[in-house]
Amino acid sequence: MHQVEIRVMGHIDERWSEWLDGLTITHTEANESVLTGAIRDQSALYGLMAKLRDLGLPLSAVHVGEETFPGREETQSNEQGRN
Of the four listed, 8, 47, 56, 59, which is most buried by Cβ atoms within 10 Å? Predict the structure, then answer.
């Protein structure tokens, strides 16, 4: 899984979250919607981008974080705390 943050111009109603692969939707004062959450892989990201395109929402930014593995986040946090 990868963590993703996608910014689009305009406000998307939070009820669209499920249709947008369960991503969390928040709004900024700059009239943007910020979608955040985990995606399976690059093909899921392309599918999500197609949905946003179909809604006619201009992209402001897309950021895909490092791949994460279930249960690994806690291990990494514990190891960082020991250093």
Answer: 8
At a CB cut-off of 8 Å and minimum separation 6, what does 10 contact?
A: 31, 32, 33, 57, 58
How many domains does the chain divide into?
A: 1
Residue 15, CB-side half-sphere exposure with 13 Å CA sphere: 0
What is the arithmetic mean of pLDDT over 45-71?
Answer: 85
Domain encompassing residue 17:
2-78
CATH code assigned at 50: 3.30.70
Mean confidence (pLDDT) of the chain: 84
